[in-house]
Amino acid sequence: MSVKKKILLIDDDKDFLFATKLILEKGGYEVFLAEDGKRGVEMWKSVSPDLAIIDMMMETWGEGFEVLKKIRATDTGKNTPLFMLSAVDLQGPYQSFEPPPEFPKVDRVLQKPVKADDLLGYIASALGK
Amino acid sequence: MMKTQKPLILIIDDEEPLRDGCRQALEKSGYTVLTAGEGVEGIKIARENKPDIAFVDLKMPGISGMEIIEILSKDIPDIVLIMITGYATILSAVEAIQKGAYDYLPKPFSPDQLRTVARRGLDHRNLKIETRRLREEKERMEKSFITFVSHEMRSPLVVIRQYIESLKAIAGDRFGKDVSDIIERCSIRVQSLEELIEHWLDFSRIENGTFAQKKEPLRLSDVTSRSTEEMMPVCKGKGIFLEVNVPENLFQIIGDEESLVRVFINIIGNATKYTPEGGKISVSAQNSEYYVTVDISDTGVGIPQDKLPFIFEPFFRAGGKEERHRGSGLGLTFCKKIMDSHGGEIDVTSKEGEGTTFILKFPVPHPRAEKLSEAPA
User: Cβ neighbours of residue B364 under 8 Å, at least 6 residues apart?
Assistant: First the structure.
């Protein structure tokens, strides 16, 4: 049996972490949870996950962006798929979020709640399964 | 922000003994004092040092006290201007106050009188600054409050739906049809509560003016293709045929593409709720001399004639209490407001049992010029 792929989930909502963990485990992944940005970056370094999913709006608006920058700045973070999560529709009519050109690469922006099949599908294709 | 250092007072007067007297009296009370012997110098010092208070002599050679007051009250925010005058007439006092002075001090005056007037001026200034700070704080809170509240209200609903998703993922294969149905109903009700919050948010933003809309030239065919693309899966899922007949050569209009996409999605979404399986929704558009008109028709249940005049009212439901398809009750009101802000019109015709048509009319800016540019070379 092959080794399970590792996914790091960073979100300050414990329930969201738990609910999403169930889906990811069902999908056959090993899941690591971080409840804030700081811990998320630490776990990124200690766990070396194959993919991370980061909530944009944690303690403050944009905390997720900081986390993303820090992770992208690490050696292992350069080419690993990173997903962003948001409860608001980032590209919707009122939030039309345009990342600045220097903004680190995001592989996918997901809007909460995420459908189980969609989530597993996006992860599978990002990991090249 | 309030200053914590010593209050700064500027005296503009051509009489040197008076300037020195004022300086001594005020410095004794802990003020920092600057002086100027005439207007131009006084204005220069004021602009550089932004004093809290300026005492300005009314009668001076060169630029008059009245003019200085007028200039300083415009140039230096929150400065308290006090007129010094040897000819204290009601008229000159009134004029000075009209020009922006707060108070006046008739000559001759005692050091105590001077200090009292300075004290009063300073209190006035602090009060003014504090009032403005509070007002700004209040406005800021009002604006972010809506975003904050909607986030706080939506978060638990998002989590509930995520739990429902995980429930289906981990145990869906063990549920019978009855359990699956209940879960699906929960999900739908939570979703409609989310929609209500979303619409309420849009609505509040329109009401308090934080709903930012662009005014840019745009192509309605982009709006219709974006919104029909978005609604296509919903229509497919319900077995409704979505027909789009929008020519590319529609006149450009001026407006906000994002909110118009929202309007179209709203109306098409409504149509999907009232159109039975096998029905059709069609979106068509055409140019006329002053308008671009978009029709969105469905072959749904229709709206009773007596209800038609009210459907753009907030929380009005054509189907009454028993209505199965509960929306937020704000969707069409939102559409109407957006159309109003575009200088457009939204109208509806309907026949029970046959269907409903929404007609959206957008004004064409400079119809003649547009036509010329469209003409073949």
Answer: B251, B252, B253, B287, B289, B290, B291, B292, B370
